Amino acid sequence: MAEARTEMMPMPAIALRTKTNAMPSKTAMMRGSSEYYSLRATILDVGKAVLEPQGRVLDLNCADGRWSEPLIQHFGFSQRFVALSSNADDVNACLDRFRLQVRLGEMDVGTLDIRERFPKIASRLTISVNGLGVLSNVRSQEVLGMIRTCLERKGVFLMIERVETMEERLAALLPAHADMALDNRTGRKGREMPARLLSATHWEEELREAGFRRIERIWASGPYVGWLASKD
Description:
Elements: E1 17-19, H1 34-50, E2 55-59, H2 69-75, E3 79-85, H3 88-97, H4 99-103, E4 107-111, E5 123-129, H5 137-150, E6 151-162, H6 166-172, H7 178-186, H8 200-209, E7 214-221, E8 224-230
């Protein structure tokens, strides 16, 4: 896909939302939590700043549609939405939630595992919430590069990932955790790990290596961090 001519554009002004007192927990991103509503508000802020009529939003790890929902509620049928997940239950839940939009052709919902394939869909806004930590280092760079390539002119990528906390970094240095930590950081096959736990700085390096020129942290809550990245 040919890229649009690069033009230096200002990043949209999005207020940094943080919850500095929040502690890491297994329920940090659960529906109904303060972090859940804070992230949804940030997604809406980004959408208001970058989306124009007849734009397209690509949600790469849509869950049950919870992350696209604020944009759909606000913009209605002025945008096209593509929601994807590797989890069939999530896809079915998203289809149930947005049955009307799908029926009217304003939204596409489908199953796709970005560990194997990537949708070559041009978008003004691409969202990934906890979608890249499951990838190997090599595949993560490939996917980030494709996300950048598929962004339209003035398009942005909103990425949210769980990052490695200081406690987890220290625990990984203990002998009992050494082999798990190695698999966790390199993505090598071995002992099963739920995701790569990288530092926020490491994620920013991955974004730069993929060719994103402007990278800004715009959201943080406990162990979760959100970045807005632009190729322009």
